[in-house]
Amino acid sequence: MPQSNQDNGLLRPSVNISSVYLTEIFDSFQGEGLWVGVRQLFVRFAGCHLRCAYCDTPNSLTRGKSLRILKNECVHEVREIPNPVNGSDLIEIIKDMVSGEAFHSVAITGGEPLLQSEFLLGWLPEIAEMGLDIYLETSGDLFERFASLAHLIDYCAMDVKLPSATHQPPKWEEHSRFLQLALNSSVRVFLKAVVSDDTTLEEIERVSVIINGFSKDIPLVLQPVTPCGDIRETISLSRLRTLHRVALSSLRDVRIIPQTHKFLGAL
Questions:
Q1: Of 31, 27, 29, 67, nearest to 47 (Cα)?
Q2: What SS3 state is found at 238?
Q3: What would the pLDDT profile of 70-94 be if each residue is shown by its tens digit?
Q4: Cβ of 34: how many Cβ atoms within 10 Å?
Q5: Across the strands, what pairs with 156?
Q6: Domain ranges in the chain?
Q7: Which CATH entry fits the domain spanning 19-264: 3.20.20.70, 1.10.443.10, 3.30.420.270, 3.30.465.10?
Q8: How far apart are alpha carbons 111 and 121 in whole angstroms?
Q9: Which of 3, 98, 159, 238 could, after both became Cys, cross-link 7 (CB 3.0–4.6 A)?
């Protein structure tokens, strides 16, 4: 198990805001949440302050020496460049990737992108100037870092980290404050919770209370856990129905959406 978040330095402010640590950039289809199926350019940030049991991108947990660029997944046009990546160089990479193509948005994912929020604050406006929407995928707990960026985000897939699935301590207060910031901005936000057979009714009730405190109409996606790492089995259909029923007793928009990109064999 890694050292504490403070010890590994990930929560300390970045010193250099002109460069960034990334894991990979690739063209694919969104496989999770409300916008499943849209084509996106994924920019995967390196480094994460959490160690969720179901994590399916372990190579993004730390800041590696190089960034992998996958321009065409089907024909495997792959190249690598060293980390950290200069911001201006990254813009040129993005321009090349999107040239002549149609994308719904640029997915800022990880790891946890908000750990490099200083870089994002200066870089995201340049992406917006290219006419591209910003889709943020985040653990939904680093509300202070999100506060400075919320006005730059078009879509936000906000995770709710359930202890039963993550095997980590709960973050109820952090999630509540994050959601409040998102709702106070113009971002289109939905919440996503990975669920397993160990997920309790109390956890789903707690998530529902947080959402209901703002609006019953905020969408909640219950995502069946995908076997990965130490996770050997997904959630049973009967348990999934029970959890859905509990959430729907308080909320109006609760959906069951698995990781569809896993079925496609896409990144």
A1: 67
A2: helix
A3: 986 655 678 999 999 999 999 999 9
A4: 17
A5: 136, 189
A6: 19-264
A7: 3.20.20.70
A8: 18
A9: 3
